[in-house]
Amino acid sequence: MPQYAVLVYEPGDPDWSVIDSAEKEEIMGEYGAFGATARAVIRGGAALYPATTATNVQVKGGKGGEVVTTDGPFAETKEVLTGFYLMECADLDEVIGWAAQIPAAWYNRVEIRPVIDLGDPAS
Amino acid sequence: MTQPAENNPGRAALDRLVRAEWPRVLASLVRSTGSFQLAEDALQDTVVRALDLWSNEGVPPEPRAWLIVAARRRAVDLLRREGKRTDKERASIDLLDRGDEPIPETEELGDDVLRLLFTCCHPTLAVETQTALALRSLCGLTTAEVARALLMSEAAMAKRLVRARQKIAVAGIPFRVPGPKELPQRLQGVLSTIYLLFNEGYHATAGEHPLRHQLTSESIRLAALVDEVLPGEVAVIGLRSLLYLQDARSTARLDAEGELVGLPDQDRSLWDLREIRAGMSLLGVALHHPSEFPHPYVAQAAIAACHDIAPTWEATNWAAIVSWYDALVAVADTPVVRLNRAIAIGELEGPSAGLAELERIEHLTSYPPFVTARAELLARAGRDAEARAEFRAAIELPGNDATKRELVRRLAESVESNPRTSADPDGT
User: Fold this and answer.
1) Are B235 and B188 contacting, i.e. CB atoms less than 8 angstroms apart?
2) In 3-state terms, chain A is what percent helix, strand and coil (to 5)?
3) How confident is the model over A104-109, as a mean pLDDT?
4) Which residues of B touch A69 (CB under 8 A)?
5) pLDDT at B5
6) Which residue of A has its CA nearest to B126?
């Protein structure tokens, strides 16, 4: 059976690690209900911290070149998210080391986003 | 920090004391709590309390130890009060609460400051964020002071700092000194952030004031702190020397009306001899480091030194300056370095030689100092119509108000013929 990465896009750059309004609480409830309903098909998933916490990794000059990191996402974005790895690393420096080995890092770019720990998304 | 320090000299002395202790105490707290935000919150509250308490009851015998103990207690209180802190932060409660974690020795605190420095200047943080964090966390400025220093509203600055600490926490920016392989490059990043802070104060690119002394003095303090916790690094010594040798001239860069004064016209008796001596002695140390090529900061410091020891603009040792620029081009070949080298050649060999060097530089045609330098050299070469056109072009480019007024004045002067170049007001 094929697997799909279903990516959730939202307006603005909401911080789902902070539930600071009744509206957010309601939406979180809806996600929880969806998780329970779709339990049979969900293999894994993650809510991401806001894009302000993102780090971009680019390897300049081809494989093995200089690793350049920048803060946040690029504003003018015509790119689409084509996949993601879930990695567990000690700190940002370690995950940058891995990200710099992904071919997209020298063909285009790789964005690292910390994952919010919400427990089991299918529970 | 509720009343203005200047109204109460006792309070000002206390403010200075607390600010001097801030980076070490904060760095120690970041390590023992594992959280940048918690450490900042706890220390901020503790400092407010300490200032009130100490102005009534006097300063305790060991203010640093007092601050560390009190801030640890405050961190425990804050953690208990808000259940929402992370597991990692909660885990640190036990340790702190037992109260048996010893007060770190000065050397350990130095290591913590070094870790904090590399955290604040981590390359995954935007440079504007690095400078704001450095001023807040390593220089101990309040959020309001950082906002004023970097020309932002306090609300926007508070938001930027909170976001920065959130990124450090959730993205896992490590609190450690980089390993030997990464260290040179990471140290270079730290030093360029400090130099950027200095330049933002020294050549303010926007706003009414062409000089923002707070930024220059804070960057000098910060460089001294780096030298203290990471001694013997030639890049650090070179940068410290450069900052002193440039800052020494800052008072003379503005006249009584707040107008910018170029290096040729400055009253050299206003130059700060104490800073010149400090810069020269550091330069001496840096030049004793054996290396085939000088570090770029050392070469720039040497150029600044040539200006600082010259009795007049005319009596400047231009041959020495040009040879230091040659050395600088060998290690840091940038269009701006070539621009300043061209100006020095213009002094050594005459305006036509300077103009010929300028012709070889690409990518700078809309950089205000380049256009100004061309204008000045054209004026000196007697090509008045071309000079006036260049001055007008320079005025149209972005810059602070005082620089523009200076250019308008030079345009007016160039209607008469002008004898000399002052396009490089700072010599580096």
Assistant:
1) yes
2) 25, 15, 60
3) 80
4) 123-124
5) 42
6) A71
